[in-house]
Write the structure tokens for this entry.
Amino acid sequence: MRAGTASAFGRRLLWRSTGMDENVLKAIAKWPNVPAVYGWLSLDRRGQWYIKGDRITNALVNGFIGRNYAADALGRWFFQNGPQRVYVRLEYTPYVFFAEHADGQHALTTHTGVPANQIREALIDENGALVLRTDIGVGVVCDRDLPMLAEALMNDSGRPVDDSDMANLLQGGEQRLYLASGIHRLLVTVAASSELPRRFAYQTDPRPAPGEPEC
């Protein structure tokens, strides 16, 4: 298989794994070399889409963007609008998680409507935001839902976390905090928000690669 063919095949596997709309996949196959768009679309910390600074409120449009949202090999997240990629500026992380109670457990869903079934890592940044690495990727918990997940935080003694526990953790104290996830307890670590893009290999403000055309 030629290198170019292998690359194209790999891209198709990525697109299909994201559950993209069939008409979008057909458009990609028909017009494979449409220049990408940068700087138009953005995602805020509450999972809301913006186009040139204006919030997108149409539910059908939001659903379309969410179903066709993916990342390339450089960690640049994009919305596949038919044959054209529209790269996304991220205010923080690629996903924003919403939390709710389900069957006595905390259920997480991304801003794109995809459930996260397994939490693999839990971090708190310098501002107290909770960032989770899950089976589908990394995201920040929406601040509106943070109090709900805070119920699952505990200290070494198994006691619910209070403000002093959190302050001790953020100030580098010896206190350890855990997040209850099913039958498991995950150690919560502190990470600077500025370190997360490098740590989890994503770009917050995508730019064209050298020689790459753009609109």
Summary: The longest helix spans residues 3-17. The chain has six helices and 15 strands. Residues 1-17 have pLDDT under 50 and may be disordered.
